[in-house]
Specification:
Chain A is mainly alpha-helical. Helices cover about 55% and strands about 5% of the residues of chain A. Chain A has 2 domains: about 10-65, Helix Hairpins (Orthogonal Bundle); about 100-255, no CATH class. Helices cover about 65% and strands about 0% of the residues of chain B. Chain B contains 16 helices and no strands.
Chain lengths: ~280, ~550
């Protein structure tokens, strides 16, 4: 019984008819599955009667009741002014960009070129030790850009060929510079430095590069794929990676200025706790 | 962060408690969205224990080569009931149940738009599930068709008993319930938001439930149509899928997977929403990139409707179709990646509170990404052809559905249980549950990937020795035995905490959305006065009037 003096809220009245509609449906389903007419008929009757009763409750004033506002009230939400610390221009971490410090672009370029100078040593050594000579790996590399290399005999590939030499050097220098730049960007993001950066740059990336080359060289440079010794190939990648990473890691880092209005602010100090 | 360390309140005196028959009647006839939501969850917990037991039996059977612990037909019935139950009577009911409880509270509404239809949705799902399990007592027993029931194995020639009919009709009835739930969510979210809560200001879980409901509305009717056609075949002599009489097994696959793949997103999108509520509160930060997250949700909902045939690469479709569905499947990874990075950005720099909801959320973040990555692998048609119907696929989808959906659901239940019951769950039991599940889950499903790559087909009830599969199966079985207790601990925790749990208070997590502004548990009408909001975090605005969110949104 609702106390006429208490506030109430109009709410839907509890009802059993949705349950009976569902039960009727499922009984009819069981009847269909088993081929039992009794179940089918009983389910059908339940469905129709329950649906009719349900619809009747939708008529105005029939399906609702006045729910008294009772029970405990929620505790008021307490304001806690002054408990939010605001970062502002000039504070460490304000509109910070990650990583906070990076290597300059020149570091990546220098690393790539240094690696590029070191990498030919094992490659040329393989040429000599395999009996093909110094120019063999250079000529194979040129096959990445020049058509028709696959038509040259092994003896022709072992000779010094100025065009192939020039193309090979350009390819090597370009790839070395680009990979060096990638090192410059990537290595500052490795969380623990500089040993981990050396590990990633000197081992992990060369491994990935060797694996990708192994998979794709058949498409990119079928001649090199045919003649290359993959163990020596991997060694030359490790040499490149270690030298390039060492050069990059030894470079002086520069601070990334905060974004937006914080740009004019003093740079954040590493180790302080502020966060954007 | 306040986490309600209030002593357990004295239990109400026995004489003041209503008789159990009155309580039962109250719950049976209820149209209150909160009680219906709880009923959905309790139903799913019951089904998960049954289907989980079937899974453990299957793992024991696969422990060693040539074991005969379970007969082949029973094994087939186990995996059919396990898959069907987990998808239709555990996953979806849990998500719909939690949403049923939370969505009206989060938008400041007094109930769902159609309370009676809401009750019907629950009862139809429950009775549909019981009809599927009714097949246990019919001649021939439960179906042996797997959860996606490929034609023509479902035809009378191959499945003579009524088990398949119970399965199909049960799914039709429960599908009706799910469809009504989707309609209810859409109308509720569109029309019952409290003053000030524009669509751009709804809590993220609400936004996700809206798009999940749209997906349900699009994909459930084709499944219902396919199941009806199947019953026409079996009961009325039609030949839609009867390949011996000119029917098409291919048609079933298209109809089923048009439902089946979006279903994966129906199961995982709400978990995305739940995580998006939990992670900010327990990182003490606002959700990073709400607008991008919202757009990514809509993008996933749309794109996922056009990827279904990646389940059918091995059927032998045209090259153009293979290419299209491979590309479309990979496309889903973009909005999903946006979400993942935004969750990480929310966590980054936050003051993490490692309570049980956050533990499960972190479990979700770490595991779901692996399931997503193996999904990209399977989207490559040539790779898929190599591992189609192997244990790699089983490992992949369990990684998504447990690593994603289940961890998300557990996170949500641990988050909202105090609101639903007024009591806190035991943190100690929750942590036991988390670690057993986390470790057991990895140990169960990681080896399946290896077994699959080694060529082990799914659904075989045993295997010969010397194929290199023994170790991986034994690891998986040990994993299943390790994670099984976690579900029992969960069931024990949610039951005993009703009496033994610490009193929660209204806002035990110091959270920011509207459900925490009312009592725990909330009254039938939710809010005595319908609230007015100005931002996505109305309680933040009240708690921090000097730094309200509405200044920035």
């Amino acid at each position: 019984m609702t106390d006429p003096g208490r506030p109430t809220i109009e709410s839907p009245k509890p009802t059993v008819w949705p349950l009976v509609v569902a039960l009727g449906l499922v009984l009819a389903g069981a009847g269909a599955a088993l081929g039992t007419v009794a179940f089918l008929a009983l389910g059908g009757v339940m469905f129709v009667v329950a649906l009719w009763s349900w619809l009747a409750e939708l008529l105005p004033g029939r399906g609702t009741e006045a729910e008294p506002v009772a029970g405990p009230s929620p505790a008021p939400v307490a304001a806690r002014p002054g408990t939010v610390e605001q970062l502002g221009p000039g504070m460490a971490g304000y509109r910070m960009r990650l990583p906070e410090k990076v290597y300059p672009i020149s570091a990546g370029l220098k690393g790539g070129l240094a690696g590029g100078l070191a990498m030919p040593v094992p490659a040329l050594l393989w040429g000599v030790l395999s009996g093909h000579g110094l120019w063999f790996p250079v000529n194979l590399l040129a096959g990445l850009a020049l058509p028709g290399i696959d038509e040259l005999s092994v003896a022709e590939l072992e000779q010094f060929r100025p065009t192939l030499f020039a193309v090979g050097v350009v390819i090597h220098a370009a790839i070395s510079a680009v990979v060096g730049l990638v090192y410059g960007v990537l290595l500052p993001t490795i969380p623990r430095s500089p040993r981990w950066q050396l590990l990633v740059g000197g081992v992990v990336i060369p491994l990935i590069w060797t694996g990708a080359s192994y998979g794709l060289m058949g498409v990119a440079n079928p001649v090199l794929r045919h003649y290359v010794d993959w163990a020596w190939f991997a060694v030359s990648q490790f040499v490149f990676g270690l030298v390039a990473a060492a050069v990059v890691v030894r470079s002086e880092k520069v601070i990334v200025p905060p974004a937006g209005t914080g740009g004019a602010a003093p740079p954040p100090t590493p180790g302080e706790g502020g966060r954007p | 962060m306040a986490t309600a360390e209030i002593e357990p309140a004295a239990l109400p005196a026995a004489e003041s408690r209503p008789p159990w028959t009155a309580v039962l009647h109250e719950w049976v006839v209820t149209v209150d969205h909160k009680k219906i939501g709880i009923l959905y969850v309790l139903m799913a917990v019951g089904f998960i224990l049954v289907a989980g037991a079937a899974a453990v039996m299957m793992r024991l059977q696969l422990w060693a080569p040539n074991l005969a612990l379970v007969p082949p037909t029973t094994f087939n019935q186990f995996f059919t009931l396990h898959g069907t139950t987990m998808v239709f009577f555990v996953g979806m009911p849990l998500l719909i149940g939690i949403a049923n409880f939370a969505v009206p509270l989060m938008i400041g509404a007094r109930d769902m738009a159609f309370p009676r239809l809401n009750a019907f949705g629950f009862w139809a799902t429950l009775f549909g599930g019981l009809l599927v399990y009714f097949s246990l007592v019919v001649p021939g027993g439960p179906p042996t068709i797997g959860w996606f029931a490929y034609a023509p194995l479902t035809e009378n020639s191959f499945a003579r008993g009524p088990g398949v009919d119970c399965w199909a009709l049960g799914l039709i009835v429960s599908g009706l319930g799910t469809t009504t739930a989707a309609i209810n969510f859409i109308v509720t979210i569109l029309s019952l938001r409290c003053p000030g809560m524009t669509l751009r200001k709804v809590p993220f879980f609400v936004w996700v439930m809206f798009w999940t409901s749209v997906q349900i509305l699009v994909v459930m009717p084709p499944l219902t149509a396919a199941l009806t056609m199947l019953e026409f075949d079996r009961q009325l002599g039609a030949h839609f899928f009867d390949t011996q009489a000119g029917g098409s097994a291919y048609l079933w696959q298209h109809l089923f997977w048009f439902f089946g793949h979006p279903e994966v997103y129906i199961l995982v999108l709400p978990a995305f929403g739940m995580i998006s509520e939990v992670v900010p509160v327990f990182s003490r930060k606002v959700l990073f990139g709400y607008e991008f997250m919202a757009a990514a949700t809509a993008a996933i909902a749309f794109i996922s409707l056009g990827v279904w045939a990646h389940h059918m690469f091995a059927v032998g479709m045209s090259r153009a179709l293979d290419l299209f569905f491979a590309a479309a499947s990979m496309l889903v990874s973009i909005p999903t990646g946006i979400k993942l990075f935004n969750w990480l950005a929310t966590v980054y720099g936050g003051k993490l509170v490692l309570k049980s909801p956050m533990l499960f959320a972190l479990g979700f973040l770490s595991m779901f990404v692996i399931g997503g990555l193996t999904g990209i692998i399977l989207a490559c048609a040539p790779v898929d052809l190599q591992v189609t119907d192997t244990y790699f696929v089983v490992g992949h989808f369990h990684w998504v559905l447990i690593g994603g959906t289940v961890f998300g659901i557990f996170s949500a239940i641990h988050y909202w249980y105090p609101k639903a019951t007024g009591r806190m769950l035991s943190e100690r039991l929750a942590k036991w549950q988390f670690w057993l599940l986390f470790l057991g889950f990895i140990l169960t499903f990681a080896p399946m990937h290896v077994a699959g790559i080694l060529g082990m087909p799914r659904r075989i009830y045993t295997y010969g020795p010397g194929r290199g599969w023994e170790l991986w199966n034994q690891l998986a079985t040990l994993g299943a035995l390790l994670q099984a207790p976690s579900y029992l601990i969960f069931a024990y925790n949610i039951v005993t905490s009703l009496w033994k749990g610490k009193v929660a208070g209204d806002d035990p997590w110091d959270a920011w959305t509207l459900e925490w502004a009312t009592t725990s548990p909330p009254p039938a009408y939710n809010f005595a006065v319908v609230p007015t909001v100005k931002s996505r975090r109305p309680l933040w605005d009240l708690k921090h009037p000097d730094d309200p969110d509405w200044k920035y949104e």
